[in-house]
Amino acid sequence: MHADLLQEARRQSEICNACRYCESYCAVFPAIHRERAFADADLTQLANLCHNCRNCYYACQYTAPHEFALNLPKILAELRQESWDDFAWPRGFARLFQRSGTAIALAAVVGLALMIWAARAIGPAGGEGFYAVLSHNAMVAIFAPAFLLPLASLGVSLRRYWRHVGGRPLTRADILAAFGSAARMRNLAGGHGDGCNFEDEDRFSQARRIAHQLVMYGFLLCFAATSVATVMHYAFAMPAPYPLLSLPKLFGITGGVMLAAGTGWMVALKLRADRALGDASAWGGEIGFVLLLGLVAVSGLALYALGQTAAMPGLLALHLGAVLAFFLLTPFTKMAHGFYRLAALLREAQSRR
Description:
- Keywords: Membrane, Transmembrane, Transmembrane helix.
- The chain is mostly helical.
- It folds into 2 domains: 3-86, no CATH class; 89-352, no CATH class.
- The protein is built from 14 helices and no strands.
- The chain has helices at 3-19, 28-33, 40-49, 55-59, 72-87, 93-98, 101-121, 136-164, 172-184, 207-235, 247-272, 283-306, 312-329, 336-352.
- The longest helix is centred in the middle third of the chain and has 29 residues, at 136-164.
- The radius of gyration is 22 Å and the shape is elongated.
C-alpha cells in the first residue's frame, strides 16, 4: 500500500481519536478510540470496517476549509481499494476490474459470447426447457470451475487480509456478533438508528441500508434457488424445468425481484451521492459491477417470463453469460467488499472481547 495514503489515514485517525465527537456513529470510531497509535494493519482494518455512510463527514467541524481538512470517508475508501488490490490473488486483476466499468462490460460481453458458442458447439442433449438449448452436463462443466476457482481466489485473498490484521481463531461469540451485524446492516443505520447521509447531507435516510439488504437477501435467495435445484436434481432425480410453486422458482423469482430492485436503487443513490467522499477512481468499477449484478437479475426474471417463447435461447445465452462474468469477476470487483467487510466485522468482534 502507498506510504502517503497510509500516512494521511493515520493523520486523520489521530485527529478523530482526539476529538471523539463521532464515537457512537458506527463501528469505526470505537475501534479508533481503542488505539493510542495506528499501525498499518490497524488502518487497513479501519478501512474495511468503514461502510462509507458519510455521517461523520457531515457532522465534522474539521472538514475543509478548516486547516485539518478531514475527509475520513474518502481516505478510508481509497485505502480500502488499495487493500483489495494488494490482497487479491492473482494480483493485477483487482486493480483492472475494481476501477473500470468498461472492463466489467467487456467481461460480460465475453461471457455472453462464450455462452452463444457453447450453445452452438455443444448443443442440447435431448432435455427439456433450458436443456433443449444447452445440456445439463455442459452447464455443469462450464459453471463448476467458474464458481469454485473464484472461491479459491477469495479464500487466498481473505487469508492474506486476516493474517495482516492479526486475526485470531474465531469463537462462536465472534461469529454470531459479526453475522448479526451484517444481517441487520447495523453500520448503515447511523449512530441513533436514523440512517445515513449518503445521498443527501441534509437528510438522514435508510435508503442505502434497505437497498443493500435487498441486494444481499435477493442474492442469497437466488443462490438458494440454485442450491435447492441441484439437490432436487441429484438427490431426488427431479430435473428441471420446475413448476411455478416449486422451491427453486419461488426462491428464484423472489430473489430476482429483490436483486433487480436493490441494484437499481443502489445505482440511483450512487448517482446522487457526492463522489468526493469516496474513491473517485473506483466509481466506474462500482457502477459497472452493480449494473452487471442487475443484468443477472433482470435477465433471469425475463427467462422465467419468456421461457416458453422463441426468445428463450437468446435470453438464456444473455443470462448465463452475465452469470459467468459475475462469478469469474467476483474476487476482483466490488462483490469482494462483502467478504472483506464480514472479515473486518469478525476481527472487530475479537477486538471487543
